[in-house]
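**Sequence with structure:**
===
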Amino acid sequence: MKLIVQRVKNANVKVEEKIVGKIEKGYMVLVGINENDTKKEADYLSKKLINLRIFEDENKKMNLSIQDVKGELLLISQFTLYGDCSNGNRPSFTTAARPEKAEPLYDYFCKKCSEKLKVEKGIFGANMQVSLVNDGPVTIVLEK
């Protein structure tokens, strides 16, 4: 499982020109699920994400978690995080989980995160347009 975490001032996701998820201060997270991922990886990364300290404290040090600043999460499924371009110029997605496995695990990950924070999300498998104001910019990759 792979997460691309962007600290944002705000973010939203649209499907067919309609906003389906919107947050203010928090993280916009792209969520990639590998064919070998299980609930174990989702549990580990949900905890890691919620406790990740990349918000600045009063001394301008990245020392506060999203819970500390009462932030929100926008979680977007993105199988292309497992695109492999090592052979040629067209990515291969053979290591990305198939939708029948990925969607329930993505839903499980979202549910785990929502136990601690407000979570908004995109629509699994849809063509989505994501807009955000990256704060910093700060972008972190988490993987398990």
